[in-house]
Amino acid sequence: MFKFQKEVAHIFQRVGSRIAVSPDLSVLLHLALLELAMLPQDVRSHKTARVSEPFCETEGSQVPARRQKNRDFPAIARRRRSGSAPERRVNCVLVGDGAVGKSSLIVSYTTNGYPSEYVPTAFDNFTVVVVVDGKPVRLQLCDTAGQDELELLRPLCYRNADVFLLCYSVVRPCSFTNLTDKWLPEILQHCPGAPLVLVGTQLDLREDVQVLIQLAQKQQRPVSTEEGQRLAQELGAAAFAECSALTQKNLKDTFDSAILASFQQAESVTVQQQRMTLLRKTPDKIKNLSETWWRKIGCLVGEQSCQTK
């Protein structure tokens, strides 16, 4: 006999009464075992294992609780689930000469990694969700080709651009001069009015001895910070930054400047639209004013007498 003898006997009586025609012993046994499994367990003799307990006895193999996943969701994910904070979208396009480090900036910013070798970019899109002033922002980064052979592909990124990162390498003076000779006219042609952020890349190489020797052999020197700031003022750029994808110095601030420049541009456009709407609607409202209101307005501005007929 086993532990639940009385319970099983009682179950067989109940289950047997359910089978009215040709009772089958196997069916009877299965139903009895099913109800046996539903009997309440003795919690004193059978300890219920916690979900967070490890499945094996090896130290260090702790299994986290199943519900712990929901607690570890980032704040952005929780807000997105509740629907209380809709995402804003910013389309940021990086332009500049080839090999100035545009792709490295994006890879370092989005993955905290650094590419080991240079591969010319034809066209790449990256999307990352960041938090600005406590609100989620979906930042789309468009990496364009700097080579002349791929110039026909670049305008595909310019159509929906909210902000441009105008990139040059601080250790490649030719990339700095090409900003005004090549890149700025191209941006103004396809996307006039978009805010610009001037970015000096490869900041970690400005004091590299080998780089300085190579530049000296060509009778060149790195682009100084003052030169970059002066050009940013001449171009009317929304911001200026120098950063390094390798060390990530000023990297986050660079993309934050681009996001804020996009926000400021959107707000200024909204204000202008509201002003234009008022200018269009105000004359119609004035025309509909009564003659009495016209006299009152003239009285206030001192153009007519305050006497009424």
TrEMBL record:
Cross-referenced PANTHER family: RHO FAMILY GTPASE (PTHR24072)
GO terms, biological process: small GTPase-mediated signal transduction
Xref: InterPro entries: P-loop_NTPase, Small_GTP-bd, Small_GTPase, Small_GTPase_Rho
Signal peptide: none
Keyword list, A-Z: GTP-binding, Nucleotide-binding
Protein name: Si:ch211-133l11.10
Superkingdom of origin organism: Eukaryota
NCBIfam families referenced in this protein's UniProt entry, alphabetically: small_GTP (TIGR00231)
Pfam family, one: Ras
SMART domains: RAB, RAS, RHO
GO molecular function: GTP binding; GTPase activity
CDD domains: Wrch_1
